[in-house]
Amino acid sequence: MSAVARSVRPFASRVLSQKLPLAAACRVSPAAGFPRGSVRSFSQSPFMELKKYTESHEWIELAADGKTAKIGITEYAAHSLGDVVFVELPAEDLEVQAGEPVGAVESVKSASDVNSPVSGKVIQGNAILEDKAKFINESPEGDAWIAEIEVTDAAELDSLLDAETYKENYAKE
Fold it and tell me: 118: helix, coil or strand?
């Protein structure tokens, strides 16, 4: 919190707690006196749920622009694979359909394709993984994304799993 906010808060609290003239006392709440939209709400909008999951353990996180997204493997998948030794990244401008491979991950245990959850065009692969494939074990759902794509149809995200449903599904495995 900034120094200005710390110094204004006690003053604002005293002013609001003072007895107001009768006209002002008719207000239902202090928020009613503020212009619409100026009061902060801390509830989460369903539009803010940008990360979705597939049953085959990939995730996709839609960027704020609603057009680009990052794709990677889940923590569960990274843990199941073990130590990752190689990540095959997609070529730029590759057109992919939902369910088609967009890359692959090889570990000491096995190899697995990474399928695109939605249709789109690859913007770039994560260059960090070319030199440091093990990074995918450290941050599979964070900075170790595999591909960034331009999403063709954002409506395809509706058929994917939210975090809670995904966790319930893999808990059964």
Answer: coil
